[in-house]
Amino acid sequence: MAPISIQTVLISESVDPRCKAILEENGIRVTEKPNMKRDELMAEIKDYDGLVVRSATKVNADVISAAHNLKIIGRAGTGVDNVDVDAATKKGIIVMNTPSGNTISAAELTCALLMSLSRNVPQAAMSMKQGNWDRKKFMGAELYGKVLGIVGLGRIGKEVASRMQSFGMRTIGYDPITTPEVTAGWGVEQMSLEQLWPQCDYITVHTPLMPSTVGLLCDETFAKCKKGVKVVNCARGGIIDEAALLRALESRQCGGAGLDVFVEEPPKNRSLVEHPNVISCPHLGASTKEAQARCGEDIALQIVDMVKGKSLVGANKHSYNTCQRDLMLPLDHGVTVVIGVQLNRLTSTQTSEKFTMELYVKSLTNCHALV
Ligand SMILES: NC(=O)c1ccc[n+]([C@@H]2O[C@H](COP(=O)([O-])OP(=O)(O)OC[C@H]3O[C@@H](n4cnc5c(N)ncnc54)[C@H](O)[C@@H]3O)[C@@H](O)[C@H]2O)c1
Ligand SMILES: O=C(O)[C@H](O)COP(=O)(O)O
């Protein structure tokens, strides 16, 4: 790859300090300016070569058109739904993420919400703080022997499955790309969503936010679920339709929800957050020291590799000699294909190294527009 000149980078959110340190060690000038309003960002971005964000900075078409020198938008994390990838690509700006850096943290929070839903832990803790000793009100149910439906069997879905299997849950799931043969290897039986909805005691969603996943759980699909089903969303607000969820909670069709993400963050409409059967967090899935260290370090190393003209996938130091990147390629007619790239470094104890590369289509949006 030809080297790309990056002399200045703006970090617009709280990213691990290693990110700034690595960039600076490599001669890149870094400015950290968190919490900018849209107009401030548009004024600030115009001269920078690179921008590093998490999920709160909305890098929309206006911001991109105000950026005269921008060559790279680095997302220290997974989801790039806060970046207008089409607008960036049209301007020749590369969008990079660090998709495996926060997988374990997001999976662990998902499991914490599933466990909290089964035993009312947050509500009971709050009641204790208020001076109560109410053992009847917080009667729970075991997870053992229950059915967990996992919609989206990628990195996080896989990690959630193995952890919840250790609680004796049966894990079933659906994914249009990961094959049933692959997920059978991790103990997840795949089936159609029509078959999945009525079987689940718990449902957790782990898909990207895109037109085909908006409202996966909606009035129609809640109606197909078991009465009292409990749901978790640690992926993106809107994959579970918020108004439909509130209706399902009120009718008791849904017995409880664990929500880490919202359509609007922070949510101005408080009705879900305040519902007694909802446990919510302020988008904490990736908020661990470990995940932030990995994501901050990875995005900096990827930018440095790009500056040096090295491979885009060569910088990742973690996950057992495996590097993963998502490449988002906008095609014609509003079609976007996401290609997963995985580089495996195989080492034997005494002899040489061997590298293999896997490319696979992770998602295809709007594909009907092609036919
Ligand atoms: N709460 C947090 O802080 C947090 C942290 C990390 C990731 N996330 C979010 O979690 C989600 C999953 O992340 P990941 O790393 O596992 O992604 P991933 O790309 O590894 O997996 C996503 C999976 O969803 C599947 N998918 C796509 N469309 C689908 C559909 N219509 N129905 C079912 N499956 C579908 C894909 O085939 C893929 O296997 C993303 O939205 C990401 O932004 C949130
Ligand atoms: O997609 C992600 O990586 C998560 O939602 C984490 O977002 P954050 O970096 O803003 O915590």
From TrEMBL:
Record bears the keyword Iron-sulfur: no
Chain ranges of the D-isomer specific 2-hydroxyacid dehydrogenase catalytic domain: 9-312
Keywords, comma-separated and alphabetical: Acetylation, NAD, Oxidoreductase, Phosphoprotein
E.C. number(s) listed in UniProt: 1.1.1.95
Pfam families xref list: 2-Hacid_dh (PF00389), 2-Hacid_dh_C (PF02826)
Residue span, D-isomer specific 2-hydroxyacid dehydrogenase NAD-binding domain: 112-285
Superkingdom in the source lineage: Eukaryota
Family designation: Belongs to the D-isomer specific 2-hydroxyacid dehydrogenase family.
Protein name, as recorded: phosphoglycerate dehydrogenase
Originating organism: Cyclopterus lumpus
Gene symbol of the encoding locus: phgdh
